[in-house]
Each structure stands twice: as C-alpha cells, then as structure tokens.
Amino acid sequence: MENRVAVMSIIVENKESVEPLNALLHEYGEYVIGRMGIPYHKYDISIISLAVDAPQNTIAALSGKIGNLEGVGVKTAYSNFEKHD
Hints:
The protein is an alpha+beta fold. It has two helices and four strands; from the N terminus they run βαββαβ.
C-alpha cells in the first residue's frame, strides 16, 4: 500500500472533545510526523496542525473520526508525493 504525506488542520471549539481527540492522536501515533498546537484564548479555541505519513485510507479514517467529535473541525491537504514500500 502506498503512503501519502498530508497535513491536517484541526480546530477545537469544544473543550470536552480534547481528551477523545488526544486518544485518537495517540492511537494513530505511529503515523504522526509532527504536531503543533496553539491555544487561541481570545476565542477559547485550540488550533492544531498535524503532519502525517500513512496510507491514504488511514489518513481518511483518522480525519473522519476527528470530524465526528463534537465541536471539532478538520481539513486535510495531501501532498503529491507517494511513497512505495
């Protein structure tokens, strides 16, 4: 299966979804290249940028699970790079 490199932009508006989000990110941790989180106190939200290297269906599954969390939005941008193992 070919891997893709992608960046996920995540906006957390519901603080109660932080723990389930962190559990998901831990579950998919083997695919995470890096993560940057920024609390934006002015609007009481968190902004997370997540770089991943994984099969496209794995990235899509993670994105779908994140998007199903209450008060959490996610958008994924894929690179054109495909790694063949």
